[in-house]
Structure to design on (473 residues):
């Protein structure tokens, strides 16, 4: 008899989701994590000064609160609490004004001027049926869609470049810039096909469920998942680095929450040459350079809307954002980086000592870059918040190479588990109608490198576990 029914390697949200799915079906599950704490890209630590709690990677979680799998678990019963900022997103301009994404489409339109109606026509049909749409776009590949007409309507808008959609749909600076900032979460040049899909999905999530913050930090999400797994009898072991699939306890199935590069290292000798070759050709994208700040006061934004926002995008125009994303994708250091800022402590008092604040920001940089972007990031913040530097008590930085050391899944600092362009959206990690199964019986992959891709939602692990369960019948 095997020691376990399943062994899961990696305790990110996908690894935990896979373990929970199998344990719910009565499987005896062991989850192994190389680091001292679980979490993958969802960890929270005191990176600067005592009492200042910073999210090491992921910070704002529209996909987390919108995830079909997470919603079904009732994680609130094991301690997860979502906080909704007053405004999900603000996008300031040099004249002191700002576009805003509010929960209400109509209130968002107030900040978009002449494009208010065009924005509503784009977003309203998807927001009204957001759960149905998410069930399809976060579903496994291949699939037949459950809502083919709705998905086709989404595809007509989403499978385009963000620049094309923004310029054809909108006339003014505000709407174009707001959409460009959302689409830039794709890490793709905004001229690439399918970059528009990221802008639409993040927009509809902002209106439907909000860009939520977990109280206590992103670590709270994985802690809640781990607590739920333990109630199901699952076993978690930390400080256990796996060097080969051959070293694992015996089991019916092994599921890896890793990217193709680690899968090759851990189990490549078990795979046929054709599958190994596909994994070797898997492409990774730009990295991130991140700065965390301990602050003695809130960031002094010029635009009042930014003081109410959980997330602030810094890149004034569509053209400015597009140039930054194009440069980082091509291996160039951005001249003026598009910067994503989160200010969790404005809404979550557990993040900083009384009367103090935290700041979290990153920009996209070339894959594997070791260039220090601190000055450029802080210059962007200072541009829209004069006097910001005077409020810094301490800072912590992490470049792409250091990110990979922190989490081996972040190859070259790529936090999305690989490029998510039009080709690799549908061929991750290989050209296969069974992306979660490897050609070797009993070995599966469920990570950000499998459909539906990056983000804290757990769907890749969920579908990998479903594949293992189906094969065991």
């Amino acid at each position: 008899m095997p020691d376990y029914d399943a062994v899961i390697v990696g305790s990110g949200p996908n690894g935990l989701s896979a373990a929970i799915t199998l344990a719910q079906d009565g499987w005896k599950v062991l989850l192994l994590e190389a680091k001292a704490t679980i979490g993958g890209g969802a960890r929270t630590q005191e990176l600067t000064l005592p009492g200042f709690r910073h999210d090491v990677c992921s910070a704002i979680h529209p996909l987390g609160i919108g995830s079909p799998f997470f919603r079904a678990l009732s994680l609130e019963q094991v301690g997860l609490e979502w906080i909704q900022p007053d405004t999900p997103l603000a996008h300031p301009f040099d004249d002191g004004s700002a576009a805003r994404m509010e929960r209400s489409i109509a209130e968002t339109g107030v900040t978009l001027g002449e494009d208010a109606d065009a924005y509503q026509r784009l977003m309203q049909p998807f927001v009204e049926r957001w759960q149905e749409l998410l069930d399809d776009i976060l579903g496994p590949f291949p699939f037949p869609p459950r809502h083919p007409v709705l998905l086709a309507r989404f595809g007509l808008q989403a499978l385009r470049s963000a620049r094309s959609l923004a310029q054809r749909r909108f006339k003014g600076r505000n709407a174009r810039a707001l959409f460009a900032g959302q689409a830039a979460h794709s890490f793709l040049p905004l001229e690439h096909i399918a970059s528009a899909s990221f802008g639409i999905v993040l927009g509809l999530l902002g209106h439907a469920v909000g860009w939520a913050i977990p109280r206590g930090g992103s670590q709270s999400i994985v802690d809640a998942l781990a607590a739920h797994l333990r109630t199901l009898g699952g076993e978690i072991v930390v400080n256990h680095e796996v060097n080969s699939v051959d070293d694992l306890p015996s089991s019916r199935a092994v599921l890896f929450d890793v990217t193709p590069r680690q899968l090759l290292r851990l189990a490549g000798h078990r795979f046929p040459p054709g599958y190994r070759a596909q994994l070797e050709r898997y492409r990774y994208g730009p990295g991130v350079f991140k700065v965390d700040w301990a602050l003695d006061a809130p960031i002094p934004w010029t635009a009042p809307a930014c003081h109410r926002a959980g997330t602030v995008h810094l890149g004034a125009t569509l053209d400015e954002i597009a140039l930054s994303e194009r440069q980082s994708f091509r291996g160039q250091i951005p001249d003026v980086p598009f910067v994503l800022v989160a200010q969790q402590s404005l809404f979550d008092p557990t993040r900083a000592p009384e009367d103090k604040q935290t700041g979290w920001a990153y920009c996209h940089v070339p894959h594997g870059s070791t260039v220090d972007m601190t000055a450029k990031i802080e210059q962007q913040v200072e541009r829209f918040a004069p006097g910001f530097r005077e409020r810094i008590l301490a800072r912590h930085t992490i470049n792409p190479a250091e990110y990979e050391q922190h989490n081996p899944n972040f190859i070259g600092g790529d936090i999305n588990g690989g490029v998510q362009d039009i080709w690799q959206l549908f061929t991750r990690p290989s050209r296969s109608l069974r992306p979660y199964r490897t050609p070797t019986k009993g070995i599966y992959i469920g990570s950000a490198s499998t459909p539906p891709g990056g983000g804290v939602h757990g769907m890749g692990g969920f579908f990998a576990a479903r594949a293992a369960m189906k094969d065991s019948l």
Remarks:
- The first strand starts at residue 4 and ends at 9.
- The CA atoms of residues 90 and 306 lie 6 Å apart.
- The mean pLDDT is 96.
- The chain has 17 helices and 16 strands.
